[in-house]
Write a structure and sequence with these properties.
2 domains, 294 residues, 6 helices, homotetramer, alpha/beta, Glucose Oxidase, domain 1, nine-stranded mixed beta sheet, three-stranded mixed beta sheet
Chain lengths: 294, 294, 294, 294
């Protein structure tokens, strides 16, 4: 990123009109999909989602203590004696960092507005979301995914600020060039951590500019924004700029170690990527199980 | 089905061992997957899931009344003034008939046992499910899907009992033969209804026998078991036999009208089918957004 | 209220210090309690709470549709085969107008502040309430209650604006004078309604001034603020002034017809009133079952 | 209890008819209430409920981890920018041992039946409770309470089996005789614990027989049934016999240290006891804030 580029330059607000809700998903064309399908040759599938074991919601004499901050809680239901079926109620907090989820564009407001420049108060009401919600994902997303492994067989150093140069270097190693509309999948070798002694690496504004220049359609990674921020001036560039201004949907908390192993084994870092969260409209985020198909 | 076949004959208990949790998903082989991929040529995608608009959980002066029996409820969360992000809590009842969901094998017990013959009390505890849960779907399912449209451009008559002959006739119309490991997608032209004046059609035991003979891996349909039962002797054959005894996962409440239209338009009724619900283990069912890829 | 009195004059902010969380509950003294106890002579009890039948949270084949906007939802829990106990999970929206509940002082902010002048952002965080919450009610409230029946054997006209003169007239009929620290219980003969053809009566700013002059400790009534407002300049005087500025806890949605009948039968309109919601701290409201003891 | 008394002898099934839902609350008469009121002299109130701080339901970047097994979870709600009011959704598990709650008679089945001999399957359905629920408590309970402090200024030894003789000795110390219809409040000096190295004391069948002979209307205590059982033959006598067979409502998890201190200070161990949980019908248990009034 040159000095003349500002955060304000990193914006797709208006690029696809004032009513748009798809953001960078607009970049996925028939050509993108054809390119994606060419990567699917054997049908071998790798999930990019963390497995989630729900915590029991039941207390009292019936249950052991639940672990802290469960993303999904489960209450097994009584269905008669003998039970006619086994069922449950689930309580889900989609943005829990332990849950692989897809952020809707409305998730992060900027100065009282949400993508692509709509007043927050018009887009979100106490009873639901009217613009920029998961409705954009209701039909699913199919595109080509490319894995950029920033630390093969290793992990990034703590608090490492990921730049465009890091992404260039990883891309060079893969031998594949990320084309417009492709999904960018990043591996840093980390699990989510708030441990101040072990600060996570994270994206810089420079990396977001790289994504904008390459016209990435979707981001997925085991790292994202750093905790604490790598640049206190722009505390969460992936969310505040990538999601909110570029309109680039984010898959938070992806699990990519298995994917990296398969890519290394096969010697290829591009794949068909399908993203099909529950067809839930009007939410700010939704759990997802992205599928990399080789 | 001949007279000599009984319900007990329609069972896969033990076919893949006493510890199995995959059921008919075992039928999906490398060959199945290769066959499936051959159907994906352009990347056009059709969802088989009903769109769900969550009901607001908020009452009081803030919200209008919610519709009856919402499958997903949403409470928008306070995240400060001004809000640092928009988020929600979701309350989900996966087996709600208005929600397209994937039934786990443990969902329906038979005489105190669940697939493949395990005591229910071992498989399900008050705090969760230990056997036959959605854990089997955690990695996603990729196979070939074949649509059998039982009433093209129309709908089945009320209370119609679907037999193997009906499935044969529809298959003949498609020009594709359902092979072992394929997913069976059925269109009857119905939406879920409890209206006694408008009773739903549904599968007979004879149709389940057909699925067993063809070794269907997964069932999806806009019809399933009839309400009220078409045969009072075997009230819910798709669930009690197909799911519980054959170990065949069911996608309840699929929406297949759009799929049928695309199949008719393209003149082909087979497609790549990916099923990737949230990677939630230990549940009896989970919302899903199946993707038919052409 | 004379013209010289403004809303700002109707405030107790600072009256009991900058740290206060009790508001007008400070008005309940040993003398108030002794006066209250003198009204309890036989132990006959009348509840001021609406009975609530929870709505089942279960959907699917198991449950009929739930009624709209339930204040309490119930999911019956599986506790084994045979069940070792019957239990449930409850989902509660305390401020639902169908639920008799006690509003905490923090419930309504005024210009970014809450009683007694604390910044909202200090008092409420995304993870809970730090000031002005139901913690103030944790020990329960015991005081004398006085019923002012504004429409004996009848109901107030639709959209009637209740004034101090209305309260004076009703008090005159009872033959009891409301003393500082007493709870004011109001009957208007209404159930909560949003029906625009049947607009609820409600309190005016003049009535709130009356409560301030009498030093009411707690308000309970089957009417409260009108829908739509009786004065568009001050849309919700009971909540925006009575609760937020006077610091007077409100019991919303009280049911007082049974109480009025007993008062008429006994010929006395004062009683011991105990208010003991679940000892839940840190909430903005809580369901309550006030007890009038004669 | 003599040898000739069996568990079956300790039953009130049928004592108040086959349709009864009140159980030992029938023992509270006008005379009981008058006796109770005579104990209320100054209006000093002591709560018998544990204070509950709700756990935040929010995960993600917004919240710290929740503590294990919270009895009440809270999600603060978005109500606009600026917020028009502060509100929440609460998720409550009434039978959590950390929550002071009132057990309904239906809570514990005995051999497929619930008090007073009704088939469980008639009393409880997947969508709610039809008999023996908290409906019995909807109007509140007012009676005299008597504190029996089993270990003044101390606590009972671990795993101590409480007998009728223990209760007799404590009653002798108080100088008050427990009369029919009174509530029995027991202090053992314990908090709920599952720590096997620190096993809780608990009631024996002999103590339950004592309660039956004295016709106790309600039980409240900081101890109840022992974990692990003090008698493996009758693992939970207070619940399995006292609640289920005597029909005696139980207040689980009461906090009585403050009460014991006031009783000792005043030199009297009887008081007016009011029990007024939210007027929630059809539940198996409900949080409660019992008030001892002196």
């Amino acid at each position: 990123m040159t000095d003349s580029e500002s955060i304000d330059g990193l914006s797709n607000w208006g690029r696809w009109g004032a009513e748009d809700e798809l953001g960078t998903l607009n970049l996925i064309t028939d050509e993108t999909r054809a390119r994606a399908l060419r990567e699917a040759r054997t049908g071998r599938v790798v999930s990019l989602a963390r497995p989630i074991d729900p915590a029991s919601m039941m207390g009292g004499p019936f249950a052991p203590p639940t672990p802290p901050s469960p993303p999904v809680q489960q209450a097994m239901l009584y269905t008669g004696v003998p039970p006619m079926g086994m069922a449950e109620v689930l309580v889900v907090t989609p943005h829990n960092p332990g849950l692989t989820h897809l952020d809707a564009l409305v998730h992060i407001p900027v100065d009282g507005q949400v993508y692509p420049g709509r007043p927050l108060t018009d887009a979100v009401t106490p009873t639901g979301v009217l613009h920029g919600s998961t409705t954009a994902f209701a039909d699913g997303v199919l595109t080509r995914g490319v894995l950029l492994d920033l630390a093969p067989d290793d992990r990034l150093p703590p608090a490492h600020p990921v730049t465009g140069a890091d992404l260039d270097a990883a891309e060079h190693r893969t031998g594949v060039r990320l084309e417009p509309g492709d999904a960018l999948v990043v591996r840093g070798g980390w699990e989510f951590s708030r441990d101040p002694a072990n600060p996570m690496p994270g994206m810089t504004l420079d990396a977001i500019a790289w994504m904008r220049h390459r016209d990435v359609s979707v981001y997925a990674g085991d790292i994202g924004d750093a905790h604490p921020p790598v640049d206190s001036q722009v505390p969460m560039p992936l969310h505040l700029v990538g999601l909110a201004r570029l309109g680039m949907p984010l898959i938070d908390g992806a699990e990519v170690d298995a994917l990296a192993a398969v890519c290394a084994e096969l010697g290829r870092y591009a794949f068909l990527l399908t993203i099909a969260p529950p067809r839930l409209r009007g939410a700010t985020g939704v759990p997802v199980n992205p599928q990399a198909i080789f």
